[in-house]
Automatic annotation (TrEMBL):
One of the essential components for the initiation of protein synthesis. Protects formylmethionyl-tRNA from spontaneous hydrolysis and promotes its binding to the 30S ribosomal subunits. Also involved in the hydrolysis of GTP during the formation of the 70S ribosomal complex. GTP binds at residues 77-84, 124-128, 178-181. The keyword Membrane does not apply. It comes from Longimicrobium terrae. Belongs to the TRAFAC class translation factor GTPase superfamily. Classic translation factor GTPase family. IF-2 subfamily. The chain holds residues 505 to 974 of 1100 of the full protein. Transmembrane segments: none annotated. GO terms for molecular function: GTP binding; GTPase activity; translation initiation factor activity. It is found in: Cytoplasm. It comes from the Bacteria. Keywords: Cytoplasm, GTP-binding, Initiation factor, Nucleotide-binding, Protein biosynthesis. One of its GO terms (cellular component) is cytoplasm. Residues 68-236 form the Tr-type G domain. This is Translation initiation factor IF-2.
Length: 470
């Protein structure tokens, strides 16, 4: 929309010029966007986040203060090759340390302690979508990618995608050849097929480590984790635990009982209960912290995931957290909120001026106003849908793409986001989650109690859209 190039042209160019097979709903990372825009004569500029350049936050650590830190691992691979099983196995058994009571809750990341006092942090959302989404926000938290390839299926399209994502990010791969328990497993074929994609395993004289595993039976898992540790030794991962904490939000939501809850992976320093932090657009004091076993913890060092309580709002995945004095944190949060509001206003007014719409009309294309309607009873939802659809004119078509009874939920908002729709609630309200997603995806939610009001407001919005440009 911003560069006025139809989506299919972008998709075509991505394929032709970058060799990327993408769909309209797919996120690209910054480097890909940069290359793609270049094809159309535009330059991509990363938006600077206010306060991100604070000297005290990015101050380099002294060599002498750095200590070895655990690796952070993301699991990728083709669908059904066993990513979830692998993460679940490690989570449930806590493989080696055998600590009683596996990790049962999902908070977006967990860490396991291994013998010899070492540990590994796992990002608990497998696949490259989450990985790319984080990178798109400028958050590069993964040190090592475990590439899961099923030995009965070998290299498949998403295996190749995962390889290119990891390579793009400059993150080393450790291969888990999975499902070796199956009778038709052929680990050798996997290794040979990987060669074709530039992944040369140690067995072939290369430097990519691998382990034959069965995530289901737990075979070879110790070896896999050992290889991950070996790989991370090569990377010489280090951090300074004795400084203010810096971290990245992995996942966040509004909890009915606890309020805003964010899972933060501490990337440097140590985060403590009582610390004042700025996190995305919010500032606050850490009221409590919980580990992946829902146990309270007082502090979290480098590469430790931890749930934090005490923020006044829900930050976004990929947002940075920095511990700092309260007044400074508050100032940064307020400025970020103001800048965000201003940005929204700019986007909104661009939407309403909608040169796009007049352009579409000029091209003889029909403009379409998409709506998602939720109400308390089916009858009124039906009545409201009909009334709104009847507002359609020759130029602007009003289309209800989804309607239903009940609170506006997350999936309504996601649908609205992907189809550029407005969500209308009649005698119903959005859930906390829906509100969070709407804020993040910039989806407009409008609530009404009277049908007439809803109709009038949509009508005047349409007239506003149609009024001639100044
Ligand atoms: P994902 O889509 O990559 O997350 O794959 P899942 O972890 O959901 O696994 C897909 C299917 O493969 C499930 O039915 C698993 O039970 C099965 N599976 C995963 N690992 C193994 C394994 O090591 N051996 C066997 N036989 N089946 C497995």
């Amino acid at each position: 929309e911003l560069i006025d190039v139809p989506a299919n042209q972008l998709i075509g160019s991505a394929f032709k010029n970058l060799g990327l097979m993408v769909t309209i709903n797919q996120r690209l990372d910054f480097d890909q966007i940069e290359l793609l825009l270049d094809e159309f004569g535009f330059e991509a500029v990363r938006e600077e986040e206010y306060g991100a350049d604070m000297e005290e936050a990015v101050e380099a650590d002294l060599e002498a203060d750095l200590q070895t830190r655990p690796p952070v691992v993301t699991v990728m691979g083709h669908v059904d090759h066993g990513k979830t099983s692998l993460l679940d196995y490690i989570r449930k058994t806590n493989v080696i340390a055998g600590e009683s009571g596996g990790i049962t809750q999902h908070i977006g990341a967990y860490h396991v302690e291994l013998p010899g006092g070492r540990s590994i942090a796992f990002l608990d959302t497998p696949g490259h979508a989450a990985f790319t989404a984080m990178r798109a926000r400028g958050a590069e938290v993964t040190d090592v990618v475990i590439l899961v390839v099923a030995a009965d299926d070998s290299v498949m399209p998403q295996t190749i995608e995962a390889i290119s994502h990891a390579r793009n990010a400059g993150v080393p791969i450790v291969v888990a050849v999975n499902k070796v328990d199956l009778p038709d497993a052929n680990p050798m074929k996997v290794k040979q097929d990987l060669l074709q994609h530039g992944i040369v395993l140690e067995d072939f004289g290369g430097d990519v480590m691998s382990a034959d595993v069965s995530a289901k039976r737990g075979l070879g898992m110790d070896e896999l984790l050992e290889k991950v540790l070996l790989q991370s030794d090569i990377l010489e991962l280090r951090a300074n635990p004795d400084r203010e904490a810096v971290g990245t939000v992995i996942e966040a939501q509004l909890d009915v009982g606890k309020g805003p809850v964010a899972t933060v992976l501490v990337t440097n320093g140590t985060l403590r209960v009582g610390d004042h932090v700025v996190c995305g657009m919010y500032s606050g004091r850490i009221r409590a912290m919980l580990d992946e076993r829902n146990r309270p913890v007082a502090k979290a060092g480098p590469a430790t995931p931890v749930q934090i309580l005490g923020l006044p709002g829900v930050p976004g995945a990929g947002d940075q957290l920095i511990a700092m004095p309260a007044d400074r944190a508050a100032e940064i949060a307020q400025t970020r909120q103001r800048l965000e509001r201003e940005k929204r206003m700019r986007i909104k007014s661009r939407g309403v001026k909608l040169t796009d719409l007049s352009k579409m009309l000029a091209r003889g294309e029909q403009a379409q106003l998409n709506l998602v309607i939720k109400g308390d009873v089916d009858g009124s939802v039906q009545a409201l849908s009909d009334a709104l659809e009847q507002l359609s004119t020759g130029e602007v078509r009003v289309q209800v793409i989804h309607r239903g009874v009940g609170a506006i939920n997350e999936s309504d908002v996601l649908l609205a986001s992907t189809s550029t729709a407005i969500v209308i609630g009649f005698h119903v309200r959005p859930t906390g989650e829906a509100r969070t997603v709407a804020e993040r995806e910039d989806v407009d939610i409008r609530l009404y109690n009277i049908i007439y009001e809803a109709v009038e407001e949509v009508r005047s919005a349409m007239e506003g859209l149609l009024s001639p440009e100044e």
